[in-house]
Amino acid sequence: MNLILCLTEQCNLRCSYCYYKETQDARHAVMDDATLEQAIRTGLERTLAFGQKQLVVSFFGGEPLLRKGAIYNAVGFARGIVAEAIEQGRASRDFCLNFVVNTNGTLFDDEFLDLCEREKFTIFLSLDGPEHHQDIARRTINGTGSFKDIERNIPRLIKLGATALSTITRAHVSTIAESIKWLHSQGFRSVATAVDFDGKWTGDDFERLAEQYREMAQYWLECRKAGDKFFLGTIQDKVKLLLSGKRLRQYSCHVYDGNIGVATNGNIFPCSRFITSKANAPYLQGNVFTGFDEIACNEVREFLARDKAECEGCDIRYRCSMHECACTSFYTTGRLEGVSAEVCTHERMLAEICYSAIENSRVT
Predict the structure, then answer these.
(1) Domains defined along the chain, listed by start
(2) In sequence order, what are the residues at sequence separation of 6 or more whose Cβ sits closer than 8 angstroms to the Cβ of residue 44?
């Protein structure tokens, strides 16, 4: 179970593509200690109720490193209640507790990096690429670039195995392949990209993106042929989907039994992009103090069990990632059942590029 804790809606950056700029527009809410502890209890109990043997506590925001003290406390609290559950026989001796932090990387210090190393944190670092690429969209509240605040910690973050997450916007689509190569050259062994589907992509934009994807696919194949197991999620995840014969929902999208997103006020949501402290939010699944609304949870469970009406008969429906993903469906259309024309165009393009790469190389 992945417990995603929105520790704060506050952030020291104002990225142009932030998908929380509407749902967390005030950017002032903070999760208090009582809610944080109850959220961890709720996550553990839900994990045990599903018969699972691993709880992943993911620190999220806003920018979670604005709440470093809360993270230190949460790690200790989580370790304590898991140990107690094991001693009581409610959790097995091989029960695993792991920690994740999703961060823009500007607020690291040596003490927190020591915590990450000691607790074997998985680190997801929002880093688009080198300075000229990064600073296009990831800027501070004052409008300055964010790269310089991240640069000093890159060597240690690489040593800790951080994954770099690069967002693709229309503003810098033409340099994405260059930026992926730069990230790899710095030492990042794992890189993933995500497209900012803003409703304004044109045919020319997608042509430029296709060119970049072809270059990325070729680069990934060259790395594989050379014995370099560089993980480029953009290409590799799609290749895995094409070769496995499985749908994304069968092994990746776990909005019912694999993810719990908790807002600053304790409200529960099915995954990260749904999280908001706003009243009457869509797909609200309960609150950590009052428990789960199982009827609302089952609505999300049904999403995993059926095809979208608009996707029936689609020739790539089993090779599609984005429309199989609850988060992408929700943030691009406002509902789980929604279908975005931009997403469809993207998925057809990327599937074809990756299929061609497989056929031309037969490298897996």
Answers:
(1) 2-306 (3.20.20.70)
(2) 55, 78, 81, 82, 85, 91
